[in-house]
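Posting for a labmate who doesn't have an account.
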Amino acid sequence: RISRRLARTIRRAPYQVTWHQHFAGTVASCADRDETWINNTIFALYQQLHAMGHAHSLELWEGEELVGGVYGVTLGGAFFGESMFSSQRDGSKLALAFLTHHLNCRGFRLFDTQFITSHLASLGAIEIPRHTYQEKLRDALKVKPHFGAITGPDQLSEALQRSTQTS
């Protein structure tokens, strides 16, 4: 769910969106908090998963500065969002909007955010019963979508335009 204000921001395209351009920087930025679960061991393990093609990052750039991002792990058609960060207004919302659009375009069946926060709920995340989750996960494991080339601001902006046009 994309609010009108966020849709306007997407159409303005204030940031460049990339995949895998700075995976380590994205994880490090997610860990740059007073309290974090991302220690050196976990950081190294995510680097290994990334090298094997199982961990992915989406980065938002303002010029040369990394200003937002999200990373996670894929298994079949499931994407498990691990963490996100933002140093600019709406950065994490934009990252999630681009990521969700990309996953939908690529045929992913499940986007697991692990926890529901008010921030995620405002973007349309819902909590589902365990048995429903297990069904969705079984379904997602049957498909093998390719993470593929970026579906970035232009494609998301076009999709927003189509969804808001009336006849």
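Reply:
Got it, the structure tokens are right above this. The CA atoms of residues 51 and 102 lie 21 Å apart.
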